[in-house]
Structures are given as structure tokens and as C-alpha cells.
Amino acid sequence: MKSGYLRTASTFVQGAQTLAQRYYSSPALLDEEIEQLFRRRWMWVGRSDELPNAGDYLLFEKFGESVVVTRTKRGGVTAFYNVCRHRGTRMCGEPRGTFSETIQCPYHAWTYSASDGRLIGAPHMNEVEGFSRDDFGLHAASVHEWEGWIFVSLSRQPIAFEDAMAPVLTTFSRFNLAALRRVERRTYDIRANWKLILQNYNECLHCPTIHPELSRVLPYTSGANDLFEGEFLGGYMEILEPNESATLGGKACGVPIGDLPDDDRRRAYYYSLFPNMMLSIHPDYVNYYSVWPVREDRSIVVTEWMQHPDSLAGGYSPQSAIDFWDLTNRQDWHICEQGQLGIASRVYEPGPYSPRESIPAAWDRAYLSAMGHPGSSNAS
Amino acid sequence: MKSGYLRTASTFVQGAQTLAQRYYSSPALLDEEIEQLFRRRWMWVGRSDELPNAGDYLLFEKFGESVVVTRTKRGGVTAFYNVCRHRGTRMCGEPRGTFSETIQCPYHAWTYSASDGRLIGAPHMNEVEGFSRDDFGLHAASVHEWEGWIFVSLSRQPIAFEDAMAPVLTTFSRFNLAALRRVERRTYDIRANWKLILQNYNECLHCPTIHPELSRVLPYTSGANDLFEGEFLGGYMEILEPNESATLGGKACGVPIGDLPDDDRRRAYYYSLFPNMMLSIHPDYVNYYSVWPVREDRSIVVTEWMQHPDSLAGGYSPQSAIDFWDLTNRQDWHICEQGQLGIASRVYEPGPYSPRESIPAAWDRAYLSAMGHPGSSNAS
Amino acid sequence: MKSGYLRTASTFVQGAQTLAQRYYSSPALLDEEIEQLFRRRWMWVGRSDELPNAGDYLLFEKFGESVVVTRTKRGGVTAFYNVCRHRGTRMCGEPRGTFSETIQCPYHAWTYSASDGRLIGAPHMNEVEGFSRDDFGLHAASVHEWEGWIFVSLSRQPIAFEDAMAPVLTTFSRFNLAALRRVERRTYDIRANWKLILQNYNECLHCPTIHPELSRVLPYTSGANDLFEGEFLGGYMEILEPNESATLGGKACGVPIGDLPDDDRRRAYYYSLFPNMMLSIHPDYVNYYSVWPVREDRSIVVTEWMQHPDSLAGGYSPQSAIDFWDLTNRQDWHICEQGQLGIASRVYEPGPYSPRESIPAAWDRAYLSAMGHPGSSNAS
User: Fold this and answer.
1) Nearest-angstrom CA–CA distance, C357 and C359
2) CA separation (Å) from C177 to C201, C233, C279?
3) Which domains does chain A have, with CATH numbers?
4) Whether C98 contacts C56, CB under 8 Å
5) What is the ipTM of this complex?
6) Is 0.90 surpassed by the pTM of this model?
7) Which residue, A122, B53, C87, C352, is the most exposed by fewest CB within 10 angstroms?
8) Which stretches of chain A sit within 8 Å of chain B by CB?
9) Nearest by CB: C88 against B15, B210, B348
């Protein structure tokens, strides 16, 4: 939904074009994306405050996997694949819950330690020659907490989280994100390739035609990008006075999210965090999205809104922010679906990006690089 | 539904057999049909009177394509792919409407001339080195009007319409088709391969068992075929006195469709126009069908009825003709679905056509020839 | 649901493991199973008493085939593919019915003898040179009656039924199965591979956790297997006093199914009959299942209950047996579905069977052998 104006013309690569058709319509390409991106990178799975106490767990279920993420006694998080080592049964079915000390498979009562995944009980297996419980602990997954979010990687050898997120590791610290509280969660089912949703988020050239409500608050020519090449992209837009925030009506819907410098009280920040997270920071609330491919032409978006705890206590309502983005997002989803339909045509060919689309053009480059498709430069 | 008796035995090729199983059950074969037939031939998309005024448009949406067909100021028709040259977005979503002078993409406001597809506006693209609007006009599709119908071809180099339709270009001129008015449109979803529907239309040997109502009006042994080899096939059947037309009840449901010779006032004509149109001409009304493959085992049929404008003004109702064919068509669709199920069996093998099925046998030959499958003769 | 204790340790193959992932998740593997197993073996299609009179028929419709099974005048059964030899049409649509003397295709009235499939009428085919009705009889399928059930084979050269079933041909004769009467039929749609259902049936190690109701009647450590290697597997469990049978409440729900020896009046027998039938024999009723793959991750189970005719006449109700198994089966289907989900994970690998799972381990071996996968031993 946003773009922000370019600091310098050099940030736009002349000749940049949209991706080729197969990136939007090939099931095999989606399989490759899952292998190269989603099974290798760190993925958002939830908020830390969803697991307040030791033994609390949530399930992360994507790409055929089910991962149990659990709060440990020491206060950290741990993650195991939800697959019994006996006959492969998915053990936990509820999306959230609390373990006592153990995870027990309901099929034949194999029992594992909830804190470290060790097998501690397996009826009648002592009758099997050479069987050792040490060989059959639950398979671990990698998990990391950052800025109040929990991330998981399905890779057996993931790049260290700090390395993966290096360009933005401390970028958001002034926004107090870890202390904010979720106030809403919505899920959308969109008939478009997941990348169309990322590209759409990364520019606001479309705002005058698609988003009349947003355009009254956030002029598409305002602001600047501070991240304009690589896997993390974005910047800010100026909130047009007398509006106070991006809400229906323009009034702030909460106290400031943190002790913000003056500049930040008049700005909205929009960043995409590769591969599939989008982060929107406003003076009085934060909303973010995770985008999940389901098929090459269908995606699920999960989005949440957060506010400072004092907003909830102080009688504020986030409704005007929720309604503002529900309206704006639906406008975006619709045009993304129209893009999916058009790109499927035999006559589609990559078209030219304008300098006002420098960020989606940069996103495409980061995507092609991450996919290992160097020959598929997006510059003609 | 019809056959008509053979003029001479020579029109039936001894040994003719039904097509092999793969022609009805292979998704890859359907892809080949779309490539070899539907994307190369002229296809019915609507009636000329659906676009009475300059700027009026209709969408033709099949085989993943969306084509905008527009009435020009000069009174002709023009057609463009509904794909913005910027980022590929499908621009028009409504099945029918009217353009002022331009087509504007709702995503980033690229604007095209509605009459010739030229790009006339593209915000911020002047900042792109070497960009020329002349390079980014809408992709054109071929379009042609004939007998009051509009046809489109998705081929980049289609055979000229007059050449494609040469055997029937003037055949129907005495029936006044261009002046008739549509009075009904129905759509059917059928769980059968599209060719089963064409084959079924092309013979009336099945009428005594499948169509008791039709058989009382149109004896299957009456009449004669005048087109019995090639891509255009059919002929007439005699309407059995005292019936006046093929309606429920047998009464005419309108004034004559034109200034018909006496013979034609007692006849019903049934023609199949390759690849997927079927045309039924009765003294007082005309109905026609377009048959669209959706999957190898599923098809959509769109059918319309037309009458002379004086029938509508004169207080006639087409209902008895609509009901007659709705009943008869449903009988046909059902048996076509039973054919689809049976042919899927491992024991199915091509069976022998009788001389009363000379027209479907000829249709199969034309089909195999158009597909470039000369080795797949349908004569054993 | 059952296991029974092992007579000797030698019946368990040390190192036996569950099958590899592809056996549960590959569509190509399912195609291979259909080819190697379901199209070659004898399959349950119904009960003999469903066809009491000459001309009565039932349809068997699986794997894209429709087979008409008919009672002959001599009292036997015969079977023909439901595919007209003319244009391949499926002729019969009703699942059950009665023929007079002939089967007539509704499309063009080709007519066949219902007793031997000969073509006896084909309108206008006498006009075709060299056409002989003798060449176009219906395709026959193999059919056999045993213990009151009807079995069909889709193989053109099936192994003789007596040879195929040799290990159990007389095993059940003391149970009077042919004289029993069906009292209920239920169908379940399960989101799990068909083999998970067979494996689940073949052991009761899971009963203490999954089946609290069953475990009160049938202790999983009771009984013994008498068929422990090969395609037919199973044995008995002891009914725990004071329970009389496996019913809700534990009371018998009918008179004894036959003149049973004393031992059999306190036992429940559970057998799996390769590939896809499961047979449960209780003192007062019999229930059995056929398991049908629909996709690699979805199956249909058809199950019926039978009782002695005197139970029905004597005012007994089978409801407590029906409810008992409906409850127990749903518990099983659910855990099979959890197995399907877990096995789909990238981290799944074959796990170790315990001696209490010697029968599913033996079933897997018989399965791999029947599939011709000798390299895929299930012993590590």
C-alpha cells in the first residue's frame, strides 16, 4: 500500500520489469519456492505473549508440517515436530494448549518430555532387541524470539536468526514492539499468488486509484525509503494534517506505542521482511501481516493489530484502525486477484516498472537472488 | 438430436468407429484440443445486437483469456486482450458495459484508447529512460461479425473468416438470421466430454429411445443431409403434420423467421459448425448452442433462442419452444454423461457406427483431421 | 482394533518397521496399488441375499468401473461390465434392480441377453458390411459366491477363487456365515490412506488409550492369533466376564450365530482378508468391513452387521452392537487421520513395531510381497 518517495534516482534500476508469467502460474515454481524460501527462512508463527507460562504451546501448521512451539521452564521457547517416532502420528490436535511435563501420543502412548523431546515411555518396546529410547526423541525445529514475535525455521541447518535479520535487527527497537498487546487478528483468503501481495504492499503508486480513503491521510508522494535494496525494504510516509493516524476519521485510536521522537509521531512506517512478513508502524498502533502461499494462485494472509497496554486500559478502541485496514486491504486483495487473472493470459509479458515502483522492483530482485535465479534479472 | 436420412449410401464410410478412449479421458488430449482447435478457430462470443452503440463492450472469457469486444464509432467491432501492459492486471471485470473514449486500468491508471488500444496515459513512466507509449498498446484479438453473430479468434494469424466458413458462408442467408432477436439464454453444466455433445447432436438414431416428445414431431427417418463431409455437417428433418413446429404441443410459437420458401415452412434444419457451435433452424424460431470444454469430463453449453421481431410485437410467446428444447436437451445431456462414465472403463474399445450415424462419423473424421491425427482414422 | 497375544515369540520379526512415507502420500503409488492389488484380487461386492431372484442385479462401482452382477435362472451369479459395445454408454444407472430377460442400452437400443451378455438386437447394424452380433457381446467379469458373500475380480485372468482364499476357505464354516442376515449398513469417509485402516484393525496395543469402552470388554492382552503370517491374519480375544459380547452394556444382542463350541461363545474373532476386507465374529453377531482407497489420503469404509435370522424373529435388537462399533470405529478413524497427517511430514521415517504389533507388521510384509516390492523389506 505504500511507497514513499525515492531519496535519489540511483535507487531505481532503469529497465526494471515485472516477473515472468511462470512465477505466478506454475505449480512447480511454487514447489521450488517452498523448498528454497519457506523451508529455509525464518517464518513468523505467533507472539511471545501467546505462551505466558511454562508448558504452554501453540501449533505452527504450514507446508504439510505441524510444529509444536512450547514455553520452557526457563522462560525460553522450544519447538518439536508434531510427529510421533513410533508410527508417525500427529500427536497434538488443538491449536493451543498446555502440557504438564510430557507430550503423550494418543495412539500407543509413547511419551516424550515436553521440555527437551526425549522419549521417556514406550509400552512393550523393551521386548524389541536393541531398542533404545535415546534413538527416538522428537525431531527438533529451530525457534527464535525477537521483538515479541516467535519465528520458526524448518531448515535442519538454518542461518542464525541474527545473521538472517541483520539489516533490521535493531531497526525497530525504538518502537517498543515487544511490549505491545495484540487487539485483533484477521485472516483473508485471496485468489492471487503470494508475491502479488508483497509487490502490492511495497508501493503506493496505486493508492490514488485504489485507496481513496487512505490517500486522504497518506499522500503517495510523501516520505522516503530508508531500506531500498535487499531483503528488507521500506520507509515512511507523512501523515497529512490534521489527521493524527491512519484510521477511519483520522483520529488517533490509542496512546503512542512508545516514547517516540517527534518525527515518528507524524509518520507511518511500512516495511516488508523477506520472505513473507509485512510490518506497518503507526504512532498509536502497529499492524503486521504474514502471507502464505496455498497454491500458485491462492494465498492466505494472517494479520494482527497491536497497541500499547495503556491504550486498552485508557478506554481507547482500535476499531477505527481495524476498519481502516480491513477496507484498504480488501481493496488491495481485489486488485491482486485481478492481477492474477490477467497475468494468466497467453499475451502477458513482463511490463516496465516506474521509479515510483522502485521498492517492488527491488523486492523482485531480492526474490530472484534468494531463489538462485540469477539469469532471471528483472532489468530488460 | 437429428440425423436425416442419407441421400446415397456412399456418404457412409463402412467400418467407421467411435473414437479411442483417450479422446474422452485424457487431460493432455484436452490441452492439445485447446491448442489445435479452440485457440486457432473462430469462436462464437455473442450477438451483434448486444453492442448497439459505440463504446459498448462485452467480455469473452474462455481458456484462461479475457477479451474485450467493443463496438467502434464506425459501427464495426474491435477486440483487445483484457490485460494491462504495465503489470498484467485484468482491467474490466463486468461482463458487459460501455466505455467513454478510454479503457483505464484501475491499478495504476494506465489509460488506453477504447477504439484502437493505443496507450495514451501512463503516470510517472516519463521518468523511465527510453520508454515509449507506442510500444505498449493493448494486444489485439481478431473479431468478425456474420449473420448477426460475433466471432473471435485467439490465433495471432487466424485463417480469414470467409475462408474458414466458406462451405456455409451463404448457406443460411435465406433464414434472415441477422434480423432475429434473442428471446432466451440458458447455460448447462454437463459431466461429459464436449465431443460427446457434438456427436449426440449429429444423429437422431437415439431419438426413439431418448426423446419420446421430439419423436412425435420429427421422425428420425425423415429428411436428408445436405452437408455430409467436412467441418460443417447437417441437413433437415420433416415436421410431421399436423405439427407446425418443434414445440411442446406442436403449435408454431411465432411468425415465420423470414420470407421462407414453402418447403422450409415444414422443415427443421440442424447443422454443426466446427468446432463447437450447433445451429437449429425452425420455421418460427432459431436456437443455437456453443459447447465449451471445462475439463476432459465436463463441458458448459450456452444456448439461445431467437425469433422474428414481429413475433415479440405480435403477442407470441417462445415458451413452448424453450420448454421443448430444455426437456430434449436434458435428455441428451443425461445420456452424454452416461457415455462419459462408460467410456472411462478399461474395457471400452471403439464401437461400430451404423449408416444412421454417418454424420457423427463424418464429424469424428473432420475432428481427427483438424487435430492433425491422420493415423487415427475412425474406419477400422 | 485387536491383537491377541502371540503364541510364540517367533511370530514377531525383530526389526520390523512401519512403511516408508511414499506408501501413504504418493498418488503414483496408489495407482500402482490399484493395478497390482485391486484390479487383480477378488473384491467383496455384496451379499448373496441381495439377489434373491433370477434377473436381480446390483452394481459394483469402483476404480472407474461399473460391473453388473446378476442372479441367473440357474441360481448362480454372473457379471458383465456396464459398458455398451456400440458407443460405450453406461447402461444401468440404478444401484439395484431386476432385468426381465434382457439388458437394453437406453442410447440406441442395443439389446443384450441378461443371462449370458450376448448381443441380440442392434438397430440398423444389419446395414453395416461384415457386422456380426457375435462379436459384440458384453465384456464379462469374474464373480464368485462364498460364505454368503459375492466377490468380483476385474482381472482378465484372475487366480481361481479357491486358490486365492485357500488359507481361509473353510476357516469360518463353523460360524454359519452364509445363513446370517444383514441388519445394518454404514459408510464412512476417512481422510487417511486405506492401509492405515488395515494396520489399525490388526492390533489392539492402541486399545487402552483409544478405546476405553472396548477395553472394558476385550482386554488387549487376551487371546491368541491363529493366522500370523501371509495375506490372511488374525485370531481371537477373550470376552471379559460378566460381559457376554462386544456391545454397549456388554449384554448379548441376539441368539448365537450358529451351533458354536463352548470356547467360541466367549470369544471374539478378528481377521483381515487381503487386500481390503476385515471380518469380526462375535457370539451373537458378525460385522465386516470393506476398505476402498479414493485418494492416497482418503478412503471409504463400507461396513455391515449380520445376525442369525432367529434373533430378528425373537425380538432382539442389534442396536447395542451397532452403537458399540460405530463409537469404536470413529475412534479408530480419527487416529488414522492423525497418522495420515503426521506421516506427511518431511521428518517422518519408518518407526519400530513392537511384538504387540506383530500382525500389522506381518500385514505390511504380505502387502509388500503382493506389490512386488521385495527390496522394501519392513525389517531394518
Assistant:
1) 5
2) 21, 18, 11
3) 9-40+168-371 (3.90.380.10), 42-154 (2.102.10.10)
4) yes
5) 0.94
6) yes
7) B53
8) 14-15, 18, 199, 205-206, 208-210, 335, 338-339, 341-348, 351-356
9) B348
